[in-house]
Amino acid sequence: MFAKLSKIYNEFPRKFWVVVGVSFIDRVGGTLLFPFFALYITQKFSVGMTEAGLVLGLFSIFGLFGSMIGGALTDRFGRRTIIIIGLVFSAVSTLTLGMVNQFATLIPLAVLIGLLSHFAGPAHDAMVADLLSEKQRQEGFGILRVVGNMAWIIGPTIGGFVAKKSFLALFIIDAAVSCVVALLFFLFMPETKPMHAEIQQKAESILATFRGYGQVLRDSAYMAFLVAGILMGLVYQQMYNSLSVYLRDNHGIEPQGYGFLLTVSAITVILFQFTTTRLIKHRPPFLMMALGTAFYVIGFSMFGWVSAYYLFALAIVVITIGEMIVVPTSQALAANFAPEEMRGRYMAVFSLLWMLPATFGPGAAGYILDNYNPNLLWYIGGVLCTISALGYVLLHSRLKSQPRFAPAPAVAEVAD
Questions:
Q1: Is 241 helix (H, G, I), strand (E, B) or coil?
Q2: How confident is the model at residue 198 (pLDDT cuts 50, 70, 90)?
Q3: What three-state secondary structure class fits 401?
Q4: Distance CA 338, CA 340 (A)
Q5: Is 401 buried (19+), middle (13-18) or exposed (0-12) by CB count in 10 A?
Q6: Residue in 281, 280, 17 with CA at minimum distance from that of residue 127
Q7: CB neighbours of 43 closer than 8 A, spacing ≥ 6?
Q8: Alpha-carbon torsion 29, 30, 36, 41, what sign?
Q9: CB atoms within 10 A of CB 208
């Protein structure tokens, strides 16, 4: 076992493992707070989920703008600087959020925090793309998913105990963790922006850097990739918002039962993500996206016609298998679409794949659940994922000859 782990460690650059380590610490801090945030709003300010949903929606909407700003500045000034600034901003804004005493103050604060909370996201993704070759990225993003899911098991468990004593303590701890991570990045992580991209960027004005988003939007293949991903994301997001309400209201499954389903998903990722990524990295990536989305078709459709709890757990496992294929592959593909000098902006636009569904998906799902047969939500989800999978098959037929989208050669394992 030790020999296998040592082999895996040696396959990736040391700087990548620094990113993995500090990302884990940062995710633990974030998961201490995030699962309890809606509870904090409703409890402290005596408001309902409608008001809490408004605040969360503002986070998502303005997070998109923050990501776009951060993506352009990442290409202009480098990854390390933007990540450190983002972490410091995050610490200050989180601490401020925990000290607010008026609900009305939360609205403008949510706008500001939305901008800041996703500011450094494109820089993180661009840094990983800088550090890893095209053939390593799929596996590298898979590793980051494993540590992210480990954080989801550790963080909420600790956060639950802390929240019973003090919600403010959660905000203070999260802010402190962000400061620690910023310090670790400052001490141990050098800039990774490619040198020739740096030279080219210096000759470009700030305005021209932001105008570069026009080039991203004119990349028709990349836009088609994102549209397929947004359709899929609209369905996937329901696992983290609408599913808990659906299970409670239609099958009498309490929040604890829903929480266990999410734990099953996280454990599945921790146990099988790396093996899954190794199995699929030698296969055409767009076809793997189609395969992963096909698992979504099966899993989400199951919610509409099963009723036994163990079958809901099975559906979650099926969805998680698809997730283990889709998420690292989509991140690697987004990085491979991007020219080196535009990685930050491409990764910022890639965030649309998650942010648009997070902004509009819950409201659309709520309308269906409140006005129609609740099972219809999952049948529609199956149809949307089917359309998405077909889109990935079409992208494969169009782009399969391009070297940047070629699977990793099978001989790579033998070389070790």
A1: coil
A2: low
A3: coil
A4: 6
A5: exposed
A6: 17
A7: 167
A8: positive
A9: 12
- Where does 29-172 show beta strands of DSSP type E? none
Structure tokens at 142: 């898979």
> Residues 276, 150, 330, 189: what is their CA dihedral angle, to the nearest 10 degrees?
-120
48 CB-near residues (< 8 Å, 6+ apart): 42
Question: Which tokens belong to 369?
Answer: 């659940």
> Is the distance from CB of 395 to CB of 224 less than 8 angstroms?
yes
Q: What is the pLDDT of residue 350?
A: 94
68 neighbors 348 (Cβ within 8 angstroms): yes
Asked if residues 133 and 408 have their Cβ atoms less than 8 Å apart, the reply is: no
Nearest one of 405, 372, 62 to 242, comparing CA atoms: 372
The answer to whether 390 touches 287, Cβ cutoff 8 Å, is no
Rounded average pLDDT over 300-315 = 96
Distances (CA, A) of 388 to 5, 75, 349: 36, 30, 18
253-265 pLDDT per residue, tens: 887 788 789 889 9
Flag whether pLDDT at 295 surpasses 90.
Answer: yes
pLDDT score of 199 more than 60: no
Q: What percent of the chain has pLDDT over 90?
A: 51
Architecture of domain 13-407: Up-down Bundle (1.20)
Q: Are 388 and 228 contacting, i.e. CB atoms less than 8 angstroms apart?
A: yes
Helices H / strands E in the chain, number of each: 20, 0
- pLDDT value of position 412: 45
Sequence-ordered list of residues with C-beta below 8 angstroms from that of 323, at least 6 positions apart, any chain: 236, 265, 269, 292
- What's the one-letter identity of residue 215? Q
